[in-house]
Write a structure and sequence with these properties.
This protein is mostly helical and about 375 residues long. It has a domain of about 170 residues. It is about 55% helix and about 0% strand. The protein is built from 17 helices and two strands. Strands 1-2 form a two-stranded antiparallel sheet. β1 and β2 form a beta hairpin. α8 packs antiparallel against α9, α8 packs across α13 and α13 runs antiparallel to α14. The protein starts with 5 loop residues before the first helix and ends with a helix. The N terminus is likely disordered.
Length: about 375
């Protein structure tokens, strides 16, 4: 696909919202470099160093989407040195008993062949259509990394269907299923038409004395299992309207949260509060209307969970001035060699392309500055 001009991109944004938004925005020029990257990463597991997510496939695909395929293999060669091997399975997951294995982190080695069989036996789009709604209630799994990895795999498959890319889709779904996690809920009636930007101010914040300040992001979300005021947050928004409008408001809101927060220890947390929900932009075209609504509801709940447990700083007006240029942001993200800088920059530019608000560019600039 050739490079899209801004006029052409904005002119087709409305159509993209109702049909497909899965082709890389900035073009790959027909490159198959993502398959080279996936082959280099084929023997690596989904985590390393005791629970850190393997970002290799995600960042590699993001580089392709940013129009920098030449940066992919050198980056992957460096990054994979830190990774560990794929975990072995313990016992197969039966087709009629998969629910009992949800959230079993020690069974990710069983989930991988489970999903590989499915993407090999039928069209991968059917697998996405069937399994994303099943996994949506646990969208916050591993700090959104399950849905993010799945979404990057889907976009690469939309560009070209290959065995390596189908396998990567299986890996993403397996990681999501093995880390499946939900929050206690008390269902209430959602206020009609309310978007995330209006609902954020009502999100209850975990008191400082109840917060967990050590461990990974999943560990730090632990207090929400016992924090009763959070139980109604999922229904603080109305996701029954136009899906892409809701999603743009959600990501714009959390780009603002990212700019306002980022104290020590929170930068990576609030990277995921944007990249997680933004991943749905790549998946929504495969879902029916009820599944879209529930996916957005859960994405809001997950981002709000990060805000409640670890943030609590609302967005503030950002300083006026010229916005950074996308090409400069891409160059700076690649120069950091940091997986989060690359993925966050790509997600911000993806969101900015359909909702051209300066906050996305400013958030990306802040990320590359802090992660340099």
């Amino acid at each position: 696909m050739g490079r899209l001009t801004r006029r052409r991109l904005l002119g087709t944004a409305a159509a993209a919202a109702t049909t497909s938004y899965l082709a890389p925005l900035f073009g790959t020029n027909g490159s198959l470099v993502i398959d080279d990257a996936l082959e280099l990463l084929a023997k690596t597991g989904p985590e390393y160093h005791g629970g850190l997510a393997n970002h290799g496939p995600m960042a590699a695909e993001a580089l392709v989407a940013l129009g920098r395929p030449g940066a992919v293999v050198p980056w992957v060669e460096r990054y994979r040195r830190r990774l560990e091997g794929r975990p072995s399975g313990t016992r197969p997951i039966a087709a009629d008993a998969w629910r009992e294995a949800l959230g079993a982190r020690d069974r990710v080695g069983d989930w991988i062949p489970f999903f590989r069989r499915r993407v090999e036996d039928g069209p991968w789009r059917d697998v996405v259509r069937e399994w994303v709604p099943r996994l949506t209630p646990g969208i916050v799994a591993a700090a959104f990394h399950g849905v993010i990895r799945t979404a990057h795999a889907v976009r690469s498959l939309e560009a070209a269907e290959t065995a390596m890319r189908r396998s990567e889709l299986a890996e993403g779904l397996a990681y999501w299923a093995a880390n499946f996690a939900t929050f206690p809920e008390s269902r209430v009636r959602a206020p009609e038409g309310r978007l995330a930007s209006r609902a954020l101010g009502g999100v209850p914040v975990v008191p400082p004395d109840l917060r967990i300040l050590e461990g990974n992001i999943t560990d730090r979300l632990g207090p929400l299992q016992r924090f009763e005021p959070f139980a109604t947050v999922a229904d603080a928004v109305d996701t029954s309207g136009e899906a892409f409008r809701f999603l743009s408001d959600l990501t714009e809101t959390f780009a603002g949260v990212f700019l306002a927060t980022v104290p020590p220890g929170s930068l990576i947390t609030f990277v995921h509060a944007l990249t997680g929900p933004s991943a749905l932009r790549l998946l929504l075209p495969h879902l029916d209307v009820p599944a879209k609504s529930e996916a957005l509801r859960r994405a809001w709940q997950g981002a709000a969970a990060l805000y409640s447990a670890l943030g609590g700083v609302p967005p503030a007006p950002h300083a006026a001035g010229p916005s950074p240029r996308p090409d400069d942001l891409i160059d700076r993200a690649i120069a950091t060699a940091d997986e989060h800088a690359i993925k966050f920059t790509e997600a911000c530019l993806r969101e900015h392309a359909v909702n051209p608000r300066p906050v996305y560019l400013l958030a990306a600039r802040r990320a590359v500055e802090r992660l340099s």
